[in-house]
Amino acid sequence: DQQVKQNSPSLSVQEGRISILNCDYTNSMFDYFLWYKKYPAEGPTFLISISSIKDKNEDGRFTVFLNKSAKHLSLHIVPSQPGDSAVYFCAASAGDDKIIFGKGTRLHILP
Amino acid sequence: KAGVTQTPRYLIKTRGQQVTLSCSPISGHRSVSWYQQTPGQGLQFLFEYFSETQRNKGNFPGRFSGRQFSNSRSEMNVSTLELGDSALYLCASSSGLEDSPLHFGNGTRLTVT
Fold it and tell me: Average pLDDT, stretch A74-87?
């Protein structure tokens, strides 16, 4: 049973525009959410996180939004840059130090 | 601060053999987690160790095991290898405190033939 779902395997966005990556979860016990970025042949890199007591967290070009009632979170990247082309993983934890990942969304930034 | 180091980077084994992968966490980090990444399956949680104790375990068969040493370094062992075990194995460390992110190594690419 997949507890963290990223329903879009890939996404293409024009350089300079906004990239929006979506993630849904099923476990209502999740209270900490993270986004990771992964380039080929490298490990995932932590991007940004949000606790369930917040509905928004911002760090530079990256903003994560959390909608607890819909069990949905999204990552916004503004403006999108060529170096943002990577696979993005959504992840969640229920406070037990076990972090569950989605299957990832491949983001292509078009010139 | 040095990052998470995994060795070896690449490994080729034959079905039925066993393999040991190594992970050195970021200095000061006491928690080490292991994940398996296969195409189309994302990162699947194997287990997590904190202060030499396994705190969490994923849904993998008993052929997959791990341990953590007093210096927080960790090893993962897979016995009786199967073709389906071919994957990228990622190790990640964290402080182990609540709501602390994982920091990943670059992984070990295991190919079983």
Answer: 97
Question: pLDDT digits over A62-78, tens only?
Answer: 999 999 999 999 999 99
**Which chain B residue is nearest to residue A43, measuring alpha carbons?**
B106
Beta bridge partners of B44: B36
Give the residue on A whose Cα is nearest the Cα of B59: A1
Chosen for mutation from A88, A99, A105 (greatest number of chain B CBs closer than 10 Å) is A99
The DSSP secondary-structure symbol of A42 reads S
Running DSSP on this structure, what letter comes out for residue A16? T
d(CA B72, CA B32): 8
Torsion sign across C-alpha atoms B100, B73, B39, B80: negative
Distance CA B35, CA B33 (A): 7
